[in-house]
Amino acid sequence: MGSALPLGDPMPTDGALPDGIRVDPAAPFGVYLHVPFCRVRCGYCDFNTYTSSELRGARQDQYADTLLREVDLATSVLGAAGGLRPASTVFFGGGTPTLLPPGDLARMLDGVRGAFGLADGAEVTVEANPDTVSTAVAHELAAAGVTRLSIGMQSAVPHVLAALDRTHDPDNVRTAVAAAREAGLDVSIDLIYGAPGESLDDWRASLEAAVALRPDHVSAYALIIEDGTKLARQIRRGEVPAPDDDLQADMYELADDLLAATGYDWYEVSNWSRGVAHRSRHNLAYWTGADWWGFGPGAHSHVAGVRFWNVKHPAAYAQRLASGESPGAGREIPDASARALEGVLLRTRIREGLDVSELLGEGRHAVAALIADGLIEGADAVRGRIVLTRRGRLLADAVVRALTD
Description:
Largest sheet: 9 strands, mixed
Strand order of the largest sheet: 7-8-6-5-4-3-2-1-9
Mean pLDDT: 95
CATH class of the largest domain: Alpha Beta
Strand content: 15-25%
Shape: globular
CATH architecture of the largest domain: Alpha-Beta Barrel
Radius of gyration: 21 Å
CATH superfamily of the largest domain: Aldolase class I
Oligomer: single chain
């Protein structure tokens, strides 16, 4: 049901931003809409999601109306802090957003459009389980203003899907992509590597199956074992092996080679696209520290330097909003040191990298050694940018530690 919420200051019942905080009307603004419903819980998943048996008082068929109450609240909060801005990106995540009827997703998007407006050329993404996407669904989403479908393929190999507790039919990935294309939507495919029992040949098969569908964008994430998940318990009991770091490194290099050879450029450690136009602008907003409001239970937001987050359970979320209160559970204003650390952590992950001038003194002293170790690009460093080599991408955490210690 998701990891624990961070500690922070209490959120006021009206959701107002702290005194003196003003919104920059010229800063980009993104919207995240969390749909916390899943048919089954995948063994590796640590997201704030709920199956029907876990809802305890929350109703899936009322969710769109509940979330739109938070949209109304955000309109008041942001208006009081200096004005509203059109959303340049909207992202429906989860959970499985496409478990809701397309009409509910359309109403949520209409609520965002009515409250903030959508910028010209706004990117509007919906995450989808392949089993939930038909031609009719794809056309309804496109008619509502969705521009991009992010399909959770994860693997093309049945025994790997089984190890991840993924229940979709692998053949439906092809069907979902075809439906999205017919509706005029951009397509992203999500993959996970390093599952128990997955070989390098299995991973190659999944990559080849993914690129054969010619998506516009591919995300490939190493499996991480999160405490409290079913998979973590299975590994602790010795029922399945833990991920092998060396094998995962080989899998990453294979993905980078195969994707580059078939026309995809890396632009973030785990993301590749067919040119700049098909990058995920919404996720880039996170990595570059832009403003966004996250709607829904457990969703996190960042506005004008303030971070805040909602209560986790859908029932508690609905109850707060029904009583006219903010669903916020807490907030914080990171100090300059925390913001600098976060900037290094996030911007070193993207292709454009980090400006050397943003490093603190000790971090600058580490640059020469990182170049010598083959972890950052020497030519880019001479031009004042910290850009990871492929080896650096594999050891990104070590690079961050060197630049911030």
